[in-house]
Write the structure tokens for this entry.
Amino acid sequence: MIRNLLYSLSPRRLLILNRYYRITQFYPFLKSTAYKAATIAAVFVLLLVSLEIFLLDFNLILNNLVNTYSPKIIYSVFLLSETFLGLVPPEMFIAWASKLEIPWGALFILATLSYIGGVISYFLGTRLFLIPSVKNHIENKIQKHIVNLRKWGGIFVFLGAVSPVPHSVVSLASGLIGYNFKNYLLWSLFRYFRFVIYAFVIFGIF
């Protein structure tokens, strides 16, 4: 294991990887993804602040959610969302967590549920092989993500965990192509990092 790690970090290995990433256009993709992430984050914060000032009282809405619905219901909705294509932006749930008595504890639960949702999506992807018509339809819908996953492997799973690239879609694609499950689990751990970074911003607003 140590020998393999040392080999992967050797100058020769790093040079080969750098050349491969340049050939496969990974660096332009990474730059574009980082730009999109920064833009989405800025737009989200600006939208929240603007709505709060001119239209809605988000603090009141979030407090009503806390008082009306039990955490179990919110967590269940979030798990479903994170399993099926990220239907609701995680940022909304992070904002909800900011109103709880132990916001960082709630954030950890949300990040864990997001991680679990990705794992479920992975296994859904593996089972789609059993239904050719569904498999072909899904592959056509997420073909771009499948291509990127085959080119960049774990790095693309990492991007799915920390960037606007949909984590559940990347997880589904990982299952579809039979990407190594242990590697998937390791790279997906960066999902926690994304939640912490967003929490520092969102908790500061609310």
In short: Residues 1-7 have pLDDT under 50 and may be disordered. The chain has 13 helices and no strands. The first helix runs from residue 2 to 8. The CA atoms of residues 129 and 135 lie 6 Å apart.
